[in-house]
TrEMBL record:
Belongs to the universal stress protein A family. This is Universal stress protein. SUPFAM superfamilies: Adenine nucleotide alpha hydrolases-like. CDD domains: USP-like (cd00293). Residues 2-133, 147-278 form the UspA domain.
Length: 278
């Protein structure tokens, strides 16, 4: 069991490191701090190449030392490779229980978009991935919000993976869990049509889906929520007060296997860390 975190020295990767340390301590797992460097020019300038490699070694050393100095008894290792950062993390995900990345790296320019490395890792990783948004240390709320599990319903195969991950996180952190599902008015609905949804409907719809996990984790206080609106909009709203949002990694068909139409906008718009599980 290993927690892998991508670290490049930016404030965004520092927040990812902060979350990864916390995750490793909760799971009693070793932490692997990973960094990749790339020589963008033709071979020949060995002096410049060596300088870049030494700079990369220093960045990685700094991240690993931060983790060792900020934790007590946590096993911290480091891994430096030459090549694309995303491919490095994807390869490490084959033997990791979890990969943690920052929402943006050195090259990301648009504040509301996740960076290309995070995007590619989320799409192709073999393990769950947590994307941590923002820069600097993870804010410590005096009253942490719940773990929000995005439930697709209709016997969707991702639901069990999402709920397993979410309930485990809630149990480890001593936080409540909200199992949430979005719904929209029927196409034939018009403002003059009455559509009454009783408050108990959330329990009726989502209760059977979460029953096995509530039994396995009786210590977790869990509630069920049916929220009207497009799925990305609903999950983005819920992320405003959540400690962690857990979604499935539904991917579109085809050789590129891109992240699905629900997960992608949530990754770009959510305001809390997002766990993408598979």
């Amino acid at each position: 069991m290993t927690i892998v975190v991508g670290y490049d020295g930016t404030d965004y990767s520092m927040q990812a490191l902060d979350w990864a340390m916390d995750e490793a301590e909760h799971r009693h797992a070793p932490l692997l701090v990973a960094h990749a460097w790339h020589w963008p020019y033709e071979p020949g300038d060995d002096l410049g190449r060596d300088s870049l490699r030494r700079a990369a070694e220093h960045v990685l050393w700094h991240g690993a030392e931060c983790a060792r100095n900020c934790t007590s008894g946590l096993t911290v290792d480091s891994d430096l490779r030459e090549g694309p950062a995303a491919e490095h993390l994807i390869e490490l995900s084959r033997v990791a229980d979890l990969v943690v990345v920052g929402s943006r790296g050195r090259r990301a320019l648009v504040r509301t978009m996740i960076g290309s490395v995070a995007d590619r890792v989320v799409t192709h990783a073999h393990s769950p991935v947590i994307v941590v948004r923002g820069a600097g240390s993870v804010p410590r709320r005096p009253d942490p919000g719940p773990i929000v599990a995005a439930v697709a319903g209709h016997d969707h195969p991702a639901d069990d993976h999402v709920l397993e991950f979410a309930y485990r996180e809630a149990s480890m952190r001593g936080l409540p869990l909200v199992a949430a599902q979005a719904w929209q008015y029927p196409v034939a609905w018009s403002p003059g049509t009455s559509l009454f949804l009783p408050d108990s409907l959330g329990e009726e719809v989502l209760g059977p889906i979460t029953e096995a996990w509530r039994t396995k984790y009786p210590e977790v206080e869990s509630t069920h929520l049916l929220e009207e609106g497009p799925v990305p909009d609903v999950l983005t709203r819920l992320s405003a007060t959540a400690t962690l949002l857990v979604v499935g990694a539904a991917r579109s068909p085809g050789p590129l296997g891109r992240i699905g139409s629900v997960t992608r906008p949530v990754l770009h718009r959510a305001t809390c860390p997002i766990a993408v599980v598979r």
